[in-house]
Protein backbone atom coordinates (compact mmCIF):
# COMPACT_ATOMS: atom_id res chain seq x y z
CA UNK A 1 0.00 0.00 0.00
CA UNK A 2 3.02 2.30 0.14
CA UNK A 3 3.41 5.09 -2.38
CA UNK A 4 -0.13 5.25 -3.77
CA UNK A 5 -0.64 7.31 -6.89
CA UNK A 6 -2.95 10.28 -6.48
CA UNK A 7 -5.69 8.45 -8.40
CA UNK A 8 -5.33 5.37 -6.20
CA UNK A 9 -5.67 7.57 -3.13
CA UNK A 10 -8.81 9.14 -4.58
CA UNK A 11 -10.28 5.72 -5.47
CA UNK A 12 -9.63 4.29 -2.00
CA UNK A 13 -11.06 7.38 -0.43
CA UNK A 14 -14.22 7.07 -2.52
CA UNK A 15 -14.56 3.46 -1.46
CA UNK A 16 -13.83 3.69 2.25
CA UNK A 17 -14.24 7.23 3.53
CA UNK A 18 -17.70 8.62 4.27
CA UNK A 19 -19.08 10.83 1.52
CA UNK A 20 -19.77 13.68 3.92
CA UNK A 21 -16.12 13.86 5.00
CA UNK A 22 -15.14 16.97 3.14
CA UNK A 23 -12.05 17.73 1.10
CA UNK A 24 -10.63 21.07 0.13
CA UNK A 25 -11.13 21.60 -3.62
CA UNK A 26 -13.21 18.41 -3.82
CA UNK A 27 -13.50 18.38 -7.64
CA UNK A 28 -9.76 18.59 -8.04
CA UNK A 29 -8.23 17.78 -4.67
CA UNK A 30 -4.60 18.31 -3.76
CA UNK A 31 -2.53 15.48 -2.33
CA UNK A 32 -0.25 17.07 0.22
CA UNK A 33 2.66 14.89 1.27
CA UNK A 34 4.75 17.22 3.40
CA UNK A 35 4.74 20.74 4.80
CA UNK A 36 7.07 23.21 6.48
CA UNK A 37 6.41 26.64 7.97
CA UNK A 38 3.74 28.31 5.81
CA UNK A 39 4.34 26.07 2.80
CA UNK A 40 2.77 22.76 1.75
CA UNK A 41 4.04 20.37 -0.94
CA UNK A 42 2.14 17.96 -3.17
CA UNK A 43 3.25 14.54 -4.44
CA UNK A 44 5.12 16.21 -7.32
CA UNK A 45 6.85 18.55 -4.88
CA UNK A 46 4.92 21.61 -6.04
CA UNK A 47 4.99 24.27 -3.34
CA UNK A 48 1.78 25.95 -2.13
CA UNK A 49 1.57 29.03 0.06
CA UNK A 50 -0.81 28.18 2.89
CA UNK A 51 -3.16 31.05 3.75
CA UNK A 52 -5.86 28.90 5.38
CA UNK A 53 -4.23 26.68 7.95
CA UNK A 54 -4.91 28.12 11.35
CA UNK A 55 -4.35 24.64 12.78
CA UNK A 56 -0.62 24.51 12.07
CA UNK A 57 -0.37 27.71 14.02
CA UNK A 58 3.37 28.05 14.65
CA UNK A 59 4.24 26.68 11.21
CA UNK A 60 3.85 23.20 9.77
CA UNK A 61 6.02 20.54 11.42
CA UNK A 62 7.80 23.03 13.67
CA UNK A 63 10.92 21.16 14.87
CA UNK A 64 10.48 22.17 18.53
CA UNK A 65 6.92 20.83 18.57
CA UNK A 66 7.83 17.65 16.66
CA UNK A 67 10.71 16.97 19.04
CA UNK A 68 8.63 17.56 22.17
CA UNK A 69 5.97 15.09 20.98
CA UNK A 70 8.34 12.38 19.80
CA UNK A 71 10.51 12.63 22.93
CA UNK A 72 7.50 12.20 25.21
CA UNK A 73 6.18 9.31 23.10
CA UNK A 74 9.38 7.42 23.76
CA UNK A 75 8.98 7.81 27.51
CA UNK A 76 5.29 7.50 28.35
CA UNK A 77 1.83 8.03 26.98
CA UNK A 78 -1.16 6.93 28.96
CA UNK A 79 -4.57 8.14 30.00
CA UNK A 80 -4.95 11.09 32.27
CA UNK A 81 -5.80 9.18 35.48
CA UNK A 82 -2.21 9.10 36.66
CA UNK A 83 -0.36 12.01 38.16
CA UNK A 84 1.84 13.58 35.52
CA UNK A 85 3.80 16.84 35.33
CA UNK A 86 2.88 17.75 31.76
CA UNK A 87 -0.83 18.21 32.39
CA UNK A 88 -0.35 20.47 35.39
CA UNK A 89 2.47 22.41 33.74
CA UNK A 90 0.32 23.08 30.68
CA UNK A 91 -2.69 24.05 32.81
CA UNK A 92 -0.47 26.52 34.71
CA UNK A 93 1.08 27.98 31.53
CA UNK A 94 -2.32 28.39 29.87
CA UNK A 95 -3.97 30.04 32.85
CA UNK A 96 -1.03 32.45 33.10
CA UNK A 97 -2.05 33.77 29.66
CA UNK A 98 -5.66 34.30 30.78
CA UNK A 99 -7.36 36.69 33.24
CA UNK A 100 -6.81 35.39 36.79
CA UNK A 101 -10.51 34.47 37.20
CA UNK A 102 -10.06 31.73 34.58
CA UNK A 103 -7.99 29.29 36.56
CA UNK A 104 -9.44 25.78 36.13
CA UNK A 105 -8.68 23.70 33.03
CA UNK A 106 -10.30 20.61 31.51
CA UNK A 107 -8.38 19.04 28.63
CA UNK A 108 -10.15 17.48 25.65
CA UNK A 109 -9.14 16.26 22.18
CA UNK A 110 -11.08 18.58 19.90
CA UNK A 111 -12.82 21.90 19.78
CA UNK A 112 -16.18 20.13 19.60
CA UNK A 113 -15.49 18.23 22.80
CA UNK A 114 -14.40 21.44 24.47
CA UNK A 115 -17.57 23.30 23.47
CA UNK A 116 -19.78 20.36 24.43
CA UNK A 117 -18.18 20.34 27.87
CA UNK A 118 -18.58 24.12 28.10
CA UNK A 119 -22.34 23.70 27.55
CA UNK A 120 -22.40 21.05 30.25
CA UNK A 121 -20.58 23.33 32.69
CA UNK A 122 -23.02 26.16 31.93
CA UNK A 123 -25.97 23.85 32.42
CA UNK A 124 -24.78 22.55 35.80
CA UNK A 125 -23.88 26.02 37.02
CA UNK A 126 -27.13 27.74 36.03
CA UNK A 127 -29.42 24.68 36.21
CA UNK A 128 -30.83 25.91 32.88
CA UNK A 129 -30.33 24.83 29.30
CA UNK A 130 -31.52 27.64 27.02
CA UNK A 131 -28.60 29.01 25.01
CA UNK A 132 -28.27 32.18 22.95
CA UNK A 133 -26.10 31.87 19.83
CA UNK A 134 -25.20 34.08 16.91
CA UNK A 135 -26.54 33.49 13.43
CA UNK A 136 -23.92 32.00 11.15
CA UNK A 137 -22.14 30.36 14.05
CA UNK A 138 -20.23 27.10 13.98
CA UNK A 139 -19.13 25.53 17.24
CA UNK A 140 -18.55 21.87 16.45
CA UNK A 141 -19.71 18.61 14.93
CA UNK A 142 -21.32 16.79 17.87
CA UNK A 143 -25.11 16.83 18.18
CA UNK A 144 -25.20 19.37 21.02
CA UNK A 145 -23.25 21.80 18.82
CA UNK A 146 -24.88 21.12 15.49
CA UNK A 147 -28.03 22.09 17.40
CA UNK A 148 -26.64 25.59 17.77
CA UNK A 149 -24.57 25.95 14.61
CA UNK A 150 -26.73 27.59 11.92
CA UNK A 151 -23.70 27.42 9.65
CA UNK A 152 -24.31 23.68 9.36
CA UNK A 153 -27.96 23.39 10.44
CA UNK A 154 -29.06 25.49 7.47
CA UNK A 155 -27.42 23.03 5.05
CA UNK A 156 -29.42 20.03 6.29
CA UNK A 157 -32.26 19.44 3.91
CA UNK A 158 -33.71 16.09 5.08
CA UNK A 159 -35.65 17.58 7.99
CA UNK A 160 -34.20 15.08 10.46
CA UNK A 161 -32.13 17.47 12.53
CA UNK A 162 -33.87 20.68 13.51
CA UNK A 163 -32.96 23.47 15.86
CA UNK A 164 -34.29 22.64 19.34
CA UNK A 165 -36.52 25.10 21.18
CA UNK A 166 -33.83 25.71 23.79
CA UNK A 167 -31.54 27.27 21.17
CA UNK A 168 -32.14 30.96 20.45
CA UNK A 169 -30.49 32.67 17.49
CA UNK A 170 -29.68 36.34 17.53
CA UNK A 171 -28.38 38.53 14.69
CA UNK A 172 -24.63 38.38 14.18
CA UNK A 173 -23.12 41.84 14.73
CA UNK A 174 -21.87 42.09 11.17
CA UNK A 175 -21.80 45.83 10.61
CA UNK A 176 -21.13 45.48 6.88
CA UNK A 177 -24.03 43.32 5.74
CA UNK A 178 -25.91 42.36 8.91
CA UNK A 179 -29.20 43.58 10.34
CA UNK A 180 -27.76 46.99 11.29
CA UNK A 181 -25.27 48.32 8.73
CA UNK A 182 -22.65 51.01 9.05
CA UNK A 183 -24.11 52.84 6.05
CA UNK A 184 -27.54 53.00 7.69
CA UNK A 185 -26.73 53.76 11.33
CA UNK A 186 -24.14 55.91 13.10
CA UNK A 187 -21.11 53.71 13.79
CA UNK A 188 -21.16 54.45 17.52
CA UNK A 189 -24.73 53.07 17.83
CA UNK A 190 -24.05 49.67 16.27
CA UNK A 191 -22.75 47.81 19.33
CA UNK A 192 -25.80 48.88 21.33
CA UNK A 193 -28.27 48.06 18.54
CA UNK A 194 -26.94 44.51 18.19
CA UNK A 195 -26.60 44.03 21.97
CA UNK A 196 -30.17 45.29 22.50
CA UNK A 197 -31.31 42.41 20.28
CA UNK A 198 -29.82 40.04 22.85
CA UNK A 199 -31.67 41.85 25.63
CA UNK A 200 -34.94 41.65 23.67
CA UNK A 201 -34.41 37.96 23.06
CA UNK A 202 -33.83 37.36 26.77
CA UNK A 203 -37.11 39.16 27.50
CA UNK A 204 -38.91 36.91 25.00
CA UNK A 205 -37.37 33.80 26.59
CA UNK A 206 -38.50 35.04 30.02
CA UNK A 207 -42.00 35.75 28.71
CA UNK A 208 -42.20 32.09 27.68
CA UNK A 209 -41.38 31.14 31.27
CA UNK A 210 -37.83 29.99 30.49
CA UNK A 211 -34.47 31.18 31.78
CA UNK A 212 -31.18 31.60 29.99
CA UNK A 213 -28.28 29.28 30.67
CA UNK A 214 -25.82 31.27 28.63
CA UNK A 215 -24.46 32.93 25.54
CA UNK A 216 -21.90 31.25 23.29
CA UNK A 217 -20.00 32.95 20.48
CA UNK A 218 -16.61 33.12 18.88
CA UNK A 219 -14.68 36.20 19.94
CA UNK A 220 -14.53 37.08 16.22
CA UNK A 221 -16.81 35.07 13.96
CA UNK A 222 -14.88 33.04 11.42
CA UNK A 223 -17.36 30.84 9.53
CA UNK A 224 -19.81 33.76 9.41
CA UNK A 225 -17.36 35.58 7.12
CA UNK A 226 -14.51 37.00 9.22
CA UNK A 227 -16.78 39.21 11.32
CA UNK A 228 -15.23 41.72 13.71
CA UNK A 229 -17.80 42.88 16.25
CA UNK A 230 -18.25 46.61 16.90
CA UNK A 231 -16.28 47.83 19.93
CA UNK A 232 -18.22 47.37 23.14
CA UNK A 233 -20.60 44.73 21.74
CA UNK A 234 -19.44 41.88 23.95
CA UNK A 235 -19.33 44.08 27.07
CA UNK A 236 -22.97 45.03 26.58
CA UNK A 237 -24.05 41.46 25.76
CA UNK A 238 -22.21 40.05 28.78
CA UNK A 239 -24.06 42.51 31.03
CA UNK A 240 -27.46 41.46 29.66
CA UNK A 241 -26.60 37.76 29.97
CA UNK A 242 -25.24 38.11 33.50
CA UNK A 243 -28.23 40.21 34.57
CA UNK A 244 -30.41 37.29 33.38
CA UNK A 245 -28.38 34.80 35.44
CA UNK A 246 -26.61 33.24 32.45
CA UNK A 247 -22.96 32.54 31.79
CA UNK A 248 -20.79 33.62 28.86
CA UNK A 249 -18.78 31.20 26.74
CA UNK A 250 -16.15 32.48 24.32
CA UNK A 251 -15.08 30.05 21.63
CA UNK A 252 -11.42 30.75 20.81
CA UNK A 253 -10.98 27.55 18.81
CA UNK A 254 -10.13 29.46 15.62
CA UNK A 255 -9.11 32.86 16.87
CA UNK A 256 -7.07 32.15 20.00
CA UNK A 257 -3.35 31.81 20.77
CA UNK A 258 -2.29 35.28 19.60
CA UNK A 259 -3.91 35.32 16.17
CA UNK A 260 -5.57 38.67 16.93
CA UNK A 261 -2.08 40.14 17.34
CA UNK A 262 -2.50 42.58 20.21
CA UNK A 263 -3.61 39.95 22.72
CA UNK A 264 -3.24 36.25 23.33
CA UNK A 265 -7.04 35.82 23.32
CA UNK A 266 -9.37 37.64 20.97
CA UNK A 267 -12.01 38.32 23.64
CA UNK A 268 -9.41 40.54 25.37
CA UNK A 269 -9.69 42.89 22.42
CA UNK A 270 -13.32 43.56 23.46
CA UNK A 271 -12.32 44.17 27.10
CA UNK A 272 -14.38 41.31 28.55
CA UNK A 273 -13.71 38.36 30.81
CA UNK A 274 -15.87 35.37 29.89
CA UNK A 275 -17.00 32.77 32.40
CA UNK A 276 -15.83 29.94 30.17
CA UNK A 277 -13.28 29.89 27.34
CA UNK A 278 -12.77 27.06 24.87
CA UNK A 279 -9.66 26.56 22.74
CA UNK A 280 -8.47 23.95 20.25
CA UNK A 281 -7.11 23.88 16.70
CA UNK A 282 -3.83 25.85 17.08
CA UNK A 283 -3.20 24.44 20.54
CA UNK A 284 -1.36 21.33 19.30
CA UNK A 285 -0.17 22.68 15.93
CA UNK A 286 -2.08 19.86 14.24
CA UNK A 287 -1.99 17.35 17.10
CA UNK A 288 -5.46 16.82 18.62
CA UNK A 289 -5.60 18.72 21.89
CA UNK A 290 -8.18 21.22 23.11
CA UNK A 291 -9.34 22.66 26.42
CA UNK A 292 -12.02 24.40 28.43
CA UNK A 293 -10.96 26.97 31.00
CA UNK A 294 -13.34 28.32 33.59
CA UNK A 295 -13.72 29.83 37.03
CA UNK A 296 -13.44 28.03 40.38
CA UNK A 297 -17.15 28.65 40.98
CA UNK A 298 -18.34 27.05 37.75
CA UNK A 299 -15.95 24.16 38.21
CA UNK A 300 -17.31 23.66 41.74
CA UNK A 301 -20.89 23.58 40.44
CA UNK A 302 -19.92 20.86 37.98
CA UNK A 303 -18.16 18.84 40.67
CA UNK A 304 -21.18 19.11 42.93
CA UNK A 305 -23.34 17.25 40.40
CA UNK A 306 -21.57 14.10 41.61
CA UNK A 307 -20.57 12.68 38.22
CA UNK A 308 -16.91 12.02 37.51
CA UNK A 309 -15.57 13.65 34.34
CA UNK A 310 -13.22 11.29 32.54
CA UNK A 311 -11.72 11.80 29.11
CA UNK A 312 -9.35 8.98 28.13
CA UNK A 313 -7.01 10.97 25.91
CA UNK A 314 -7.68 14.51 27.11
CA UNK A 315 -4.56 15.85 28.81
CA UNK A 316 -2.34 12.84 28.06
CA UNK A 317 1.43 13.36 28.51
CA UNK A 318 2.22 13.53 24.78
CA UNK A 319 -0.54 16.03 23.93
CA UNK A 320 0.45 18.22 26.85
CA UNK A 321 4.15 18.10 25.89
CA UNK A 322 3.09 19.32 22.46
CA UNK A 323 0.83 22.00 23.93
CA UNK A 324 3.73 23.28 26.04
CA UNK A 325 6.02 23.34 23.01
CA UNK A 326 3.47 25.37 21.01
CA UNK A 327 3.35 27.97 23.79
CA UNK A 328 7.17 28.03 23.82
CA UNK A 329 7.31 28.78 20.10
CA UNK A 330 4.64 31.49 20.27
CA UNK A 331 6.75 33.21 22.93
CA UNK A 332 10.26 32.56 21.60
CA UNK A 333 9.45 33.48 18.01
CA UNK A 334 7.21 36.39 19.06
CA UNK A 335 4.43 35.10 16.83
CA UNK A 336 1.74 37.21 18.45
CA UNK A 337 3.83 40.29 17.62
CA UNK A 338 4.35 38.92 14.10
CA UNK A 339 0.58 38.50 13.69
CA UNK A 340 0.13 42.17 14.60
CA UNK A 341 2.89 43.45 12.31
CA UNK A 342 2.10 41.26 9.30
CA UNK A 343 -1.66 41.55 9.90
CA UNK A 344 -1.44 45.37 9.79
CA UNK A 345 0.60 45.08 6.61
CA UNK A 346 -2.10 42.85 5.08
CA UNK A 347 -4.74 45.49 5.87
CA UNK A 348 -2.66 48.22 4.22
CA UNK A 349 -2.02 46.13 1.11
CA UNK A 350 -5.63 44.92 0.87
CA UNK A 351 -6.86 48.52 1.16
CA UNK A 352 -4.54 49.44 -1.72
CA UNK A 353 -6.16 46.65 -3.74
CA UNK A 354 -9.56 48.01 -2.73
CA UNK A 355 -8.62 51.41 -4.20
CA UNK A 356 -7.98 49.65 -7.53
CA UNK A 357 -10.79 47.10 -7.60
CA UNK A 358 -14.46 47.95 -7.10
CA UNK A 359 -15.19 44.29 -6.41
CA UNK A 360 -13.70 44.65 -2.92
CA UNK A 361 -16.52 46.01 -0.78
CA UNK A 362 -14.91 45.67 2.60
CA UNK A 363 -11.54 44.84 4.10
CA UNK A 364 -11.76 43.77 7.72
CA UNK A 365 -9.49 42.01 10.11
CA UNK A 366 -7.37 41.93 13.21
CA UNK A 367 -3.94 40.36 13.26
CA UNK A 368 -3.74 37.37 10.95
CA UNK A 369 -7.52 37.02 10.71
CA UNK A 370 -8.58 38.99 7.67
CA UNK A 371 -11.56 39.01 5.33
CA UNK A 372 -12.11 40.51 1.89
CA UNK A 373 -15.85 40.94 1.29
CA UNK A 374 -16.44 40.78 -2.47
CA UNK A 375 -19.42 42.67 -3.88
CA UNK A 376 -21.09 43.15 -7.23
CA UNK A 377 -21.99 46.69 -6.26
CA UNK A 378 -20.41 48.74 -3.48
CA UNK A 379 -23.63 50.64 -2.80
CA UNK A 380 -26.03 47.70 -2.49
CA UNK A 381 -23.26 45.40 -1.18
CA UNK A 382 -24.73 42.53 -3.20
CA UNK A 383 -22.38 39.59 -2.55
CA UNK A 384 -20.09 38.55 -5.42
CA UNK A 385 -20.22 34.82 -4.66
CA UNK A 386 -19.36 33.42 -8.10
CA UNK A 387 -16.47 35.85 -8.35
CA UNK A 388 -15.19 34.67 -4.96
CA UNK A 389 -15.40 31.09 -6.21
CA UNK A 390 -13.37 32.04 -9.27
CA UNK A 391 -10.72 33.78 -7.16
CA UNK A 392 -10.23 30.72 -4.96
CA UNK A 393 -9.91 28.41 -7.96
CA UNK A 394 -7.44 30.77 -9.64
CA UNK A 395 -5.35 31.23 -6.49
CA UNK A 396 -5.06 27.47 -6.28
CA UNK A 397 -3.75 27.42 -9.84
CA UNK A 398 -1.21 29.99 -8.71
CA UNK A 399 -0.30 27.63 -5.84
CA UNK A 400 -1.88 29.72 -3.13
CA UNK A 401 -4.30 27.94 -0.81
CA UNK A 402 -7.18 30.19 0.17
CA UNK A 403 -10.81 29.76 1.19
CA UNK A 404 -14.09 31.66 1.08
CA UNK A 405 -16.83 31.76 3.66
CA UNK A 406 -19.81 33.60 5.10
CA UNK A 407 -23.52 32.96 4.43
CA UNK A 408 -23.08 34.06 0.80
CA UNK A 409 -19.65 32.46 0.39
CA UNK A 410 -18.31 35.74 -0.92
CA UNK A 411 -15.77 36.52 1.79
CA UNK A 412 -12.18 35.60 1.04
CA UNK A 413 -10.88 34.31 4.31
CA UNK A 414 -7.27 34.54 5.45
CA UNK A 415 -5.98 32.75 8.55
CA UNK A 416 -2.48 31.51 7.77
CA UNK A 417 0.15 29.97 10.04
CA UNK A 418 1.47 32.71 12.32
CA UNK A 419 4.92 32.71 10.72
CA UNK A 420 3.45 34.32 7.57
CA UNK A 421 5.71 37.12 6.27
CA UNK A 422 5.34 40.46 4.53
CA UNK A 423 6.93 38.88 1.44
CA UNK A 424 4.13 36.28 1.49
CA UNK A 425 1.62 39.13 1.62
CA UNK A 426 3.25 40.88 -1.35
CA UNK A 427 3.16 37.67 -3.37
CA UNK A 428 -0.50 37.06 -2.48
CA UNK A 429 -1.50 40.63 -3.37
CA UNK A 430 0.29 40.47 -6.72
CA UNK A 431 -1.76 37.38 -7.62
CA UNK A 432 -5.01 38.84 -6.29
CA UNK A 433 -4.44 41.99 -8.32
CA UNK A 434 -3.94 39.88 -11.46
CA UNK A 435 -7.06 37.79 -10.78
CA UNK A 436 -9.28 40.80 -10.06
CA UNK A 437 -8.07 42.26 -13.38
CA UNK A 438 -9.12 39.04 -15.13
CA UNK A 439 -12.59 39.34 -13.63
CA UNK A 440 -12.80 43.00 -14.60
CA UNK A 441 -11.80 42.14 -18.18
CA UNK A 442 -14.99 40.13 -18.56
CA UNK A 443 -13.01 37.44 -20.33
CA UNK A 444 -13.83 34.80 -17.77
CA UNK A 445 -17.09 32.97 -17.31
CA UNK A 446 -18.20 32.74 -13.73
CA UNK A 447 -19.91 29.66 -12.38
CA UNK A 448 -23.44 30.59 -11.34
CA UNK A 449 -23.76 27.36 -9.37
CA UNK A 450 -22.54 28.72 -6.07
CA UNK A 451 -22.19 25.35 -4.37
CA UNK A 452 -23.07 25.49 -0.69
CA UNK A 453 -20.17 23.31 0.35
CA UNK A 454 -17.46 25.33 2.00
CA UNK A 455 -14.79 23.35 0.28
CA UNK A 456 -15.87 22.37 -3.18
CA UNK A 457 -14.24 24.45 -5.85
CA UNK A 458 -14.41 23.09 -9.42
CA UNK A 459 -11.24 23.19 -11.47
CA UNK A 460 -10.95 26.48 -13.23
CA UNK A 461 -10.74 25.02 -16.70
CA UNK A 462 -14.19 23.53 -16.14
CA UNK A 463 -15.49 26.96 -15.21
CA UNK A 464 -14.42 28.14 -18.63
CA UNK A 465 -15.55 25.25 -20.82
CA UNK A 466 -17.97 25.86 -23.60
CA UNK A 467 -17.23 29.50 -24.08
CA UNK A 468 -13.98 29.21 -26.00
CA UNK A 469 -11.84 31.07 -23.52
CA UNK A 470 -8.13 31.06 -24.12
CA UNK A 471 -7.12 29.57 -20.78
CA UNK A 472 -3.58 30.87 -21.02
CA UNK A 473 -5.14 34.14 -19.86
CA UNK A 474 -5.93 32.34 -16.67
CA UNK A 475 -2.34 31.35 -16.10
CA UNK A 476 -1.39 34.96 -15.89
CA UNK A 477 0.59 34.91 -19.12
CA UNK A 478 -1.93 37.18 -20.80
CA UNK A 479 -3.48 39.94 -18.83
CA UNK A 480 -5.89 42.48 -20.03
N1 LIG B 1 -15.42 26.05 17.18
C1 LIG B 1 -15.04 26.69 16.07
C2 LIG B 1 -15.16 28.17 16.01
C3 LIG B 1 -14.55 25.98 14.98
O1 LIG B 1 -14.19 26.63 13.88
C4 LIG B 1 -14.44 24.58 15.08
C5 LIG B 1 -13.87 23.76 13.93
N2 LIG B 1 -13.88 24.33 12.71
C6 LIG B 1 -14.86 23.95 16.24
C7 LIG B 1 -15.33 24.72 17.28
C8 LIG B 1 -14.81 22.46 16.36
O2 LIG B 1 -13.52 22.03 16.50
P1 LIG B 1 -13.11 20.53 16.09
O3 LIG B 1 -13.24 20.41 14.63
O4 LIG B 1 -11.70 20.43 16.61
O5 LIG B 1 -14.02 19.63 16.82
UniProtKB/TrEMBL annotation:
CDD domains with a match to the protein in the record: OAT_like (cd00610)
InterPro entries in the cross-refs: Aminotrans_3 (IPR005814), PyrdxlP-dep_Trfase (IPR015424), PyrdxlP-dep_Trfase_major (IPR015421), PyrdxlP-dep_Trfase_small (IPR015422)
GO molecular function, one term: pyridoxal phosphate binding
Pfam families: Aminotran_3
Signal sequence coordinates: none
Top-level taxon of the source organism: Eukaryota
Record family assignment: Belongs to the class-III pyridoxal-phosphate-dependent aminotransferase family.
Protein's recorded name: Ethanolamine-phosphate phospho-lyase
Lineage, broadest ranks: Eukaryota, Metazoa, Spiralia, Lophotrochozoa, Mollusca
Amino acid sequence: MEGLTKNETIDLRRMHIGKSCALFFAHDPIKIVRAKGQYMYDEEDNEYLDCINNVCHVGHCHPHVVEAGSKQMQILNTNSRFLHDNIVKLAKRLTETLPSELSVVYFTNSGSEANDLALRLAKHHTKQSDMIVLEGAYHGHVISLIDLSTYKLDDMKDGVHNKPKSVHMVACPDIYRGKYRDDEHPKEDLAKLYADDVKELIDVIHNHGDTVSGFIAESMQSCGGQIIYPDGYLQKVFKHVHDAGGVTIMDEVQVGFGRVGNHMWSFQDQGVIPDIVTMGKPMGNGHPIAAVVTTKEISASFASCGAEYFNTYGGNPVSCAIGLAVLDVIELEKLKENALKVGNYVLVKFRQLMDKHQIIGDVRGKGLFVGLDLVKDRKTREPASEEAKYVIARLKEEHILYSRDGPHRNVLKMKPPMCFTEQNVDHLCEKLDMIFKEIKSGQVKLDANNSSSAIEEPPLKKLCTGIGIDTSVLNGTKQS
